[in-house]
Every structure is written in C-alpha cells, then in structure tokens.
Specification:
The chain is mainly beta. β19 (about 305-325) and β20 form a beta hairpin. This is TonB-dependent receptor.
C-alpha cells in the first residue's frame, strides 16, 4: 500500500512538470581513466589509486541478475558471503577474510548500518539488487576517511537521472513461488531531478535447516523497499539533495528458543533512513555538509509470540572538503560526528581526518592521510593510510605498480558491552571488560592494461589485535582472542575481450587466515574463484552470461570443535533478448548443477532454481 501511494503521488506531480524522456546512454566499459569515488571521497582517476578497487557497472549487475546484491558482489575478488539459508537469512559479507561488521556500506552517501543488531553491521540480507546502477568496492582496512573501523568500503549508487521523464517496469517470477516487481520512476530538468525505486519481493523459500526434521516447513521471505532521491541545483555551484530509504523485511527461520528449540520463527526488520546534503563545487574547491539519520527496529517471534525486540539509531553529521588546485598536490579533509543508539544505550564518536594527494607527476601518485577519533567509551585513537601508484607505458599497454598501508580500530558495540554485563551472560564472558580491536594491513601489486584487457595480481596481509567473537562453544557471551588474528593472501583478477561479442572475466583469491591459537578463522574459505563468460550477438539483441563460483577449504565450529565444511562449485546462467527498444525479456538459472552445500554449519544453501522476467522502458 505504501509503495502504491508513492507511485500515485509521483505520477500526479510529474505528469506535466518535466520534458519528454531521452534515451539513456549505454553503460560505459571500464577504462584506466574511469573515475571512482570510494577510495578518497572525491572523484579520482582509477589510474592514480594505489589501493585495490573493484567496480561493477549497471551492465554487469544486470548480466548477473540475482535478486540479492550480496550474491552479485561475491563474484568480485576476495569477497566471501555466508548466509544462514535462503533469501532474507542472516548474511555476512567478508572482504579479505575480515568480519562482515568491519565492512562499511553506503547507498547514495547514506550509511546503511544496523545499530539494533549485536554488531553495527550492514544487513545485506535485506538489500536487493533492484534499482542499483553501480557499485565500487574498496578492499582492505583503507577506509580512513569513512571511519577508523572501516575494514572495507562498499559504495552503492542508485540509477542516475537523465533529462526528461522515464519509467522502468520490471517483473520476475520463478522457483519456490518467488515473485518480484520493481517500478523505477525518474524525472529531471535543468534545476531539479527526482527518482524513485519501489520493489516488492516475495518467496516461499525452502526448509533451510538440516536439523529441522520436526516441521520441515518452507522458510519464506518478504521484502518491500522504497528508495527515493530528490535533488535541486540551487545555482551553478550549489546543490541540495535529499535521499530517503524505507525497507520492511519479514524472514521465516528455524532454531528460536522457547524453553526448547522451536522451528516456527519469524523476524521482522524495519529501516527508515534519510540523508540531507548541501554540496558546493568549483574548479578549485568542494564542500559537502550532510546530516543523516537511520532508525532500525527488529522483532523476533517464536511460535507466534514476541520473543525478542531491539531498536537502534545512527545520527550523523559530516563535512567533506577538498582543495584541488594547490601547487603539486590536492587535499581532502573532513569531520564527522556520529551518535550510536541501541535501545536505551547511547554513545558518541567524533572524527577528523586530513589526506594529501600528490599531483606533481603524470606517472607517480601518492596519498597519505591521518584520522583522529574520540570515542565516548574508548578514548582517542589515531589511524593512518599511505598509498602509492607508479605508471609506465609499454607500447600500447599501461602497467601500474601499487602499494598501500592502512590502520584502524573498532570499539565494541553497545550490545556487546551490555550483553556481557547483563543477566544472560555467564563465565567466562560475564563481567568481562571488552577492549577495542586494533587493525592494520598492507598490500602491493601490479596491474596490466591494454585496450579492454586487464590483469591484476595483489598480495595482501592484514592483522586484527584482540578480535571480538561470540562464544560458540559455551554461549556465555562475547570474548576476545588475546593476540593477533591474520588474513594473508593473494588475489588475481583479469578480463579478456576476445571480440565485440565475447569476453571472459576471472578472479582467484588464496587467503590463509589464522587465530592467535593457530586455528583457521571460521567461515573463511581458503580458496575462492570466479569465472564469467559473456556472449552478445552481433545484433546486440541476445545476451548469454555464465558465472562459475568455487569455494574450498572453509571451517565452522560446533561446541568449540572445528568442523570442515564441504567444498562446492556453483554455476549460474542468465540470458536476455531485446524484443524492441522498450522491451527486454530475460531468464536465469541458479545453481544449475544442483550443488548441495553449507556455508554455515547446519544451514542448507538453495538448490537449483529458474526465473523469467520482463523489463519495460518508457
């Protein structure tokens, strides 16, 4: 009902306000001159960046086609996703083996974090791919300007707005009684632009837990998402923008507790988030001042009765500035003030940072920055980052040598601290005073590009001191690994364009992780690999894409004992046919080989599924 009201309001407002729509430009192929924002908070040519960045364009996202954005991101280098079952089940996205709650996610600048959860993390299980046009991924603890606890940054952009009025209708249907409907409306003239993406998703699901032999019922999921963006150009230099996001998700799951283990469980998730920003830009300076707030509520039901509820808020004021015409260098600087709320608990964290970007050479580039955080509970901390890139040409090819080092810290969440002090904790966690985690990491690598062919190899080494974890052996509460937890590995990625019709992409990550006790870190595959093949007909009407994913050598834990998880390989195939300029038909097969596997012990991943859909553009 909420979605329908928004659509009706928008239609009535825009019916006579904007000029007719213009055809959208096709997605641009990534080149060395492509601009990315995620590394330094301001647009930078990718050739100048010494840190590792992956980019997914709208064309790539549509080729994958998966409902879940996390399932698409896991095809990128060094990204592993674990999910407790099917759509809507608790998910963790780990970059280079670090915990999912160390991954910071932004959507149109809005921080998508859930402070109502045990850790302030991104609830990827409730982020659909509909309405997304671009994703930039910064790998490793390099997110200095975003916050000292950013062990990786994912920047998501919704669809851009072109002059005129445009409407996109997207509908899918398929296995497990799954249906999706998305409406994207956009309108713009010289002074104002507006976009709205409204999505309704529902699936009947399947029995996700191997231990559920009592009900053995299907665990379904429902999602309603509205994402809106309104911007106005106040003058040639000033822009005011409002972003609002509303998500409602309902997940059925197994394993809640009502004295005994029950298998009739429901979780309801609600997010209401808004960001208002005022931006100034000129040839020499830029300034951005923004205020954002997000409110999250979670309610869990066991056998139809409320068993647990939590709520949280993130209120944030941030300023980002840049000076770009200084002699031989640029500066990026900023401050942010964030209030974290979990139930009746509150905490402030204030940060300031300054970053130097060299601009004195066409071949050598360097960035160096420092950040200072003041945390109410854990005092002052300084974080650093330095990155370099050197370019040299070889005939028509460009070779880039790069390296970077970054550090950070993460304060225990309000929930973690409160749980250990509460009535549900018992020794050894009860009363344990948690300390902050300290992280650091370096990488170095080489990148080769010629035309649309690219190869990259990166060596990385990351450490976390005193990593926090929940006691899965005794369920006593939150503990800390006294000492150093490591992720040490190598990444290879590449793309080859054979012809205008055929291209290949591949990546491989070997990551050896270790806890202070010498054991492998949980749910972190030692080997990840992805292979993609894309074929487009000469008429460009037909497209066929295949994605092959491999995960080997992962472990989980049961009552303190390590358990080896089975290796698995998953094949997905998608195809589309453009009937006309305005009509696109597509189909998708997921897990074509019907692989049975578990990413989390006792939780079964989805079997083979098929979907068909239609997309209409006006």
């Amino acid at each position: 009902m909420f979605v329908r009201k928004l659509v009706l309001i928008f239609s009535s407002i825009t019916s006579g306000l904007f000029i007719p729509s213009q055809a959208q430009e096709p997605a641009q192929t990534e080149t060395l001159e492509e601009l990315v924002v995620v590394a330094n908070r301001i647009p930078q040519p990718i050739r100048q960046i010494g840190t590792s960045v992956s980019v997914l364009t709208e064309d790539m996202l549509q080729a994958h086609g998966n409902f879940s954005l996390a399932n698409i991101l896991r095809q990128s280098p060094a990204i592993a996703v674990t999910r407790n079952g099917g759509m809507g089940a608790t998910s963790a996205l780990r970059i280079r083996g670090e915990e999912g709650f160390r991954t910071l996610t932004l959507l149109d600048g809005l921080k998508i974090s859930d402070p109502s959860a045990p850790q302030v993390f991104t609830p990827f299980e409730h982020i659909l791919s509909s309405g997304v046009s671009r994703v930039e991924i910064l790998r490793g603890p390099q997110g200095l300007s975003y916050g000292a606890d950013a062990g990786g940054v994912i920047s998501i952009n919704s669809k851009p707005t072109d002059p005129g009025v445009s409407v996109i209708l997207d509908g899918q249907s398929g296995s497990r009684s799954t249906e999706l409907g998305n409406l994207h409306l956009a309108a713009a003239n010289d002074s104002i632009d507006f976009s709205l993406s409204a999505t309704e998703f529902e699936t009947g699901g399947y029995n996700v837990r191997a231990s559920d032999t009592v009900l053995a019922d299907n665990d379904g999921y429902e999602n309603s998402t509205v994402h809106a963006r309104l911007g106005t150009n106040l003058s040639e230099n000033f822009r005011l923008q409002l972003v609002h996001r509303n998500v409602e998700g309902k997940t059925q799951y197994d394993g809640c507790f009502v004295g005994v283990t029950a298998y009739d469980c429901d979780s309801i998730y609600e997010l209401e988030a808004t960001r208002l920003s005022l931006d100034y830009s000129s040839s020499s300076f830029s300034h951005s001042l923004a205020y954002s707030e997000s409110r999250t509520e979670r309610d869990d039901f066991a056998l139809g009765s409320l068993s647990f509820g939590s709520s949280g808020e993130l209120n944030r004021i941030e300023y980002v500035g840049s000076a770009t015409n200084l002699p031989g260098f640029d500066l990026v600087y900023g401050v942010d003030f964030e209030e974290e709320v979990n139930g009746s608990l509150k905490r402030d964290n204030d940060g300031a940072y300054l970053e130097f970007l060299s601009d004195f050479s066409d071949n050598f580039f360097m960035t160096a920055g420092i950040r200072r955080d003041e945390n109410d509970d854990f005092g002052s901390h300084s974080s650093y980052r330095i990155a370099t890139a050197y370019l040299f040409t070889l005939n028509a090819s460009v070779i880039k040598l790069k390296g970077s080092y970054g550090s950070g810290f993460r304060a225990p969440s309000l929930f973690e601290i409160d749980y250990n002090a509460g009535p549900f904790a018992f020794p050894p966690a009860a009363g344990l005073l948690l300390s902050e985690e300290q992280s650091a990491g370096f990488e170095y690598g080489i990148e080769y590009r010629t035309g649309s062919t690219r190869f990259e190899i990166v060596r990385f080494d990351q450490e976390v001191e005193d990593a926090l974890f929940f006691d899965l052996a005794g369920f006593s509460g939150y503990l800390q690994d006294s000492g150093t937890s490591t992720s040490d590995g190598i990444e290879f990625s590449g793309t080859i364009t054979v012809s205008e019709s055929l291209n290949f992409s591949a990546n491989y990550t070997h990551n050896e992780t270790e806890r202070p006790n010498g054991m492998q870190r949980l749910r972190r595959p030692e080997q990840l690999a992805n292979l993609g093949i894309n074929f487009t007909s000469f008429s460009e009407k037909f497209r066929l894409s295949t994605f092959y994913r491999v995960s080997h050598d992962s472990v989980d834990e049961q009552f303190g004992s390590p358990i080896d998880l089975d290796d698995f390989e998953v094949l997905d195939i998608s195809a589309s046919y453009r009937v006309s300029e305005n009509i696109l038909l597509y189909a998708r097969l997921e897990n074509v080989l019907d692989e049975t596997y578990q990413e989390v012990l006792d939780f079964i991943s989805p079997d083979r599924a098929s979907y068909i859909g239609i997309r209409l553009n006006f």
